Amino acid sequence: MTPKKILVPLDGSRLAEVALREAFDFGRRGATVVLLRVVEPKRLPGADPLETEVTAVREAEGYLASIAARATLAGVPTVETSVWYGTVAESIIDAAHVREVDLIVMSSHGRSGLGRLVLGSVAETVLRGTTTPILLLRDRALPVTVPQEMKEAVHV
User: Fold this and answer.
1) How much is the average pLDDT of 39-68?
2) Cβ(126)–Cβ(104) below 8 Å
3) Across 109-126, average pLDDT
4) pLDDT higher than 80, residue 40
5) Bigger pLDDT: 13 vs 150
6) Residues 93-115, buried b or exposed e (16+ Cβ, 10 A)?
7) CA distance 10 to 80
8) pLDDT number for residue 154
9) Those residues with Cβ within 8 angstroms of residue 69's Cβ, 6 or more apart along the chain or in another chain
């Protein structure tokens, strides 16, 4: 598979940026890299909602500009940035469709069981909500855990 356009959802965390290495590699091989930051609606008591939204979008744009500069320094010739306002998983799904990407490159905590149930999984929601192929990466520094179902299946 040689994608022409890839989407890289970022939230500003080191974990999300794990996807950049692979994304930049695709970009150096000719793919357009679309960097996405989703700004979630937040209502702060006593704050002007419009001002809060504008500030959050501006911060997201600044963050993406810094990542785009890193991509350019890494030899990626075509980088686009996109800020979406809404819920994370739905915005990633919508952006992949609207931007007509061939691949989504993103990272995940790799939680299972109760951790995923309590915290949810953006990656899983995106996987279930799109037919766009996804390259899902984990930080190599995180421990690998075997899901309980697999442990039980081995002992059967």
Assistant:
1) 86
2) yes
3) 58
4) yes
5) 13
6) bbbbeebebbbbbbbbebbeeee
7) 13
8) 61
9) none
Report the alpha-carbon distance of residue 39 to residue 28 in Å, rounded.
28
Residue 85 — φ and ψ, nearest 5°?
Answer: -110, 115
Phi, psi angle pair for 108, to nearest 5° = -145, 155
pLDDT tens digits, one per residue of 4-20 = 999 999 999 998 999 99
Torsion of CA 40, 13, 23, 96, to 10 degrees: -10
Helix (H), strand (E), coil (C) string for the chain: CCCCEEEEEECCCCCHHHHHHHHHHHHHCCCEEEEEEEECCCCCCCCCHHHHHHHHHHHHHHHHHHHHHHHHHCCCCCEEEEEEECCHHHHHHHHHHHCCCCEEEEECCCCCHHHHHHHCCHHHHHHHHCCCCEEEECCCCCCCCCCHHHHHHHCC
pTM: 0.82
| Spatial strand order in the sheet of 79-85 | 79-85, 32-39, 5-10, 103-107, 134-137
CA 98 to chain centre: 16
% the chain with pLDDT above 70 = 80
